[in-house]
Amino acid sequence: MGLLALLVAVIIINLSSSALGDDAANGGASFVFGDSLVDAGNNNFFSTLSKANIRPNGIDFTASGGSPTGRYTNGKTISDIVGEELGQLNYALPFLSPNTTGKALLSGVNYASGGGGIMNATGRIFVNRLGMDVQIDYFNITRKQLDQLLGPSRAREFLTKSSIFSITVGANDFLNNYLLPVLSVGARVSQSPDAFIDDMISHLRAQLTVKDRFASEELVNYKMVPLVFWI
Known about the structure:
Blueprint: E1 3-13, E2 29-34, H1 78-85, E3 93-94, E4 108-110, H2 132-150, H3 152-161, E5 163-168, H4 171-178, H5 185-190, H6 193-209, E6 221-230
Parallel strand pairs: 2-4, 2-5, 3-4
Antiparallel strand pairs: 1-6
Helix pairs in contact: 2-3
């Protein structure tokens, strides 16, 4: 057997050295993309086999009084913790929540979805999930809402100077796609693990560099966390 290390997560943070504006009096905004590691409850709002709104999830989450929120954890997600450490007073709400509208957008929005991945086929075993393509399309909707709320110029300044963007994705592309028994046999025959990783990176790069779909143009810090297991 050998040790195989794979790309699991990419955390991308966009920060400006400029002072936060009036719209970021709450410490700024977080815009969160990814999978179950950072899902704040989007999967609560559609039919899927990947659900986390049941106990013991949430039992240590003070903000909900110990009730499950759709986070796949007993407490906070890593994006919740990062936001707190950066001085944000409110957690980013799930995009699909009916409460994610108006001034609530100024705390940021969470687009992450349990079962989601970079590749569109990832997570199909759960029937429904939000992949990266869908999440970025949802962010484009948020951009238009912010334009209406703040005006285009002020909204752009808010996104580039008062916001952070984080992406935590990649594990499901292997665990619930490439390595999935039966359903992935064809992919494994046609692609080596290294070739699949290259395909993932190519897809993620394309998803993040279509300027009309993604506002941030100063992604300055990349952190890659390996998934390590024996084969």
